[in-house]
Give the backbone structure.
Amino acid sequence: MAKATNPILRGFNPDPSIIRVGDDYYIATSTFEWWPGVKISHSRDLVNWTDYGYILTDSKKLDLRGVGITQGIWAPCLTYNNGIFYLCYTVIKAYYVNMYDTENFIVTSASIDGPWSDPVKIDGFGFDPSLFHDDDGRKYLVSMVTDHRVPKKYQGRLLIEELDSKTFQRIGDAKEIYSSSEIFLEGPHILKKDGWYYLFAADTGTGEGHGESVLRSRNVFGPYEMHHPSYIKRSPGEAWSILTSIQNPNYPLQKSGHGCVVTTPEGEWYMVHITARPSDRYNPEGEARVLNHPRFPGARRYPLGRETSIVHLIWDDDGWPRVDGGVLPPIEVPINVEKKEQDVYVADFSSLDASWQSLRVPMTEHYMKYISDKKVLRMYGRSGISNYFSQTLIARRIEEMDFSAELTLSFEPECFKQMSGLAVMYDTDNYFYLHITHDEDIGKCITLLKAENKKYEYLTPYIKIDSNEPITLKVCSNNFYFTFSYKLGNSEYVELVSNLDGSFLSDEACFEGWFTGSMIAICTQDLTGRGLYSDIFAFKYENLKNAYIHQKKALL
């Protein structure tokens, strides 16, 4: 039997919400400050997935200008009922404060391809709003509750309310269905089976203690009983997780939780959920990486971010669900489908596919356009790489610890404030940027900039370029140790620097990062305001190892 190898959505693909419509499966994932909002992945077999598109694509309906790092779109919930697609989501515009905003919305469409309705604002007690459609046609919204008080009154709290099926306004009062001073729950989803309302919820935050708990009730408004499985190994104070890696720190899939359930046409049950793969604690010479960090001292790094995996779900005789094989997310799930490997990607700039996103704003012709007679993507330099409002940048997810990326471009800068090139980035405060620029003493040149939590340093001198030929910039990664090189025209590559530790591109190392993942980006800046352009000829990305689980002695 063929098998699905976890994760099924590699790289930055967190908070999965899955539905099946006929023979089609769709997963919605969080996109945070990246534009467009809410990524959709598609499959017909639960094994082979493609980047299908995005739901929130109209800047008049979604304005992300100015949102901070890891803010923006959080934890979408995609549902389908009686021929209509529904999407609930949160827009966070203030997070790194106690009293942060959680604006929640619903949009609908008769097709997954849209057009989607104007957003309807709903109650914002907290984030992770989830819509449940009951058998009688009534609709309910369940969400977690944030608490800015000091000290907090609750560690975790969930509310449910009935919504009008047309206006989505609340009917009656919201009712508490869960509260605890010990166990934090979020990411709730309700499903109904055999007369029971099952409440699946993510527990214990998003770190290595993450898990998935389940509660149930005979009434949608509760009271809900939390499942206490007898088969789990649990330390005092931990959640009763039916899925978690907390007791297995050496396991290659960590941070497992935040699940959503789907059934196949044959009646099999599966749950998609978050996982993450840690980078190696050691460098290529076997020496320990420096992991000290004031925010999470000694913590492992997860530069790929939170990814989406899948488990087979079975139902015990007592009516409770459990993960087939135990609480650990399996590395392989038996599904009788052939896996089609796609480890090499070559961009078609005449029509950018759904793997690409920009930051906060759409890339209209003000930022870039395809020049058909030259077969190039022309990118007009705008604001600096750290700008929250207007910058020319497109990026796609890094899928493995070992990868390479090549970018071929032409750029004729006139001063040092004009730059264009290839970036490996976690966010706009943390990146490596191999770029072409201009220095007043030596002219056109190449250099490598490193930004780590707003500390900037150049890792190479300015390397003079006496050529108008296209330049290819390249990065190779070995367990997120980077080697950067370049070549002119068809000449051989010239290595600039090797074995640069890139593990700081991780939510455990970035001061404001927490929820996203590393990206490979193409960008152009012109800080003079003149809009100097670069011409992008080609881009190639390759996963260098056909290995979905990067497991080395670092996990010990």
Summary: The chain has two domains: 3-334, 344-555. The radius of gyration is 24 Å. Residues 547-556 have pLDDT under 50 and may be disordered.
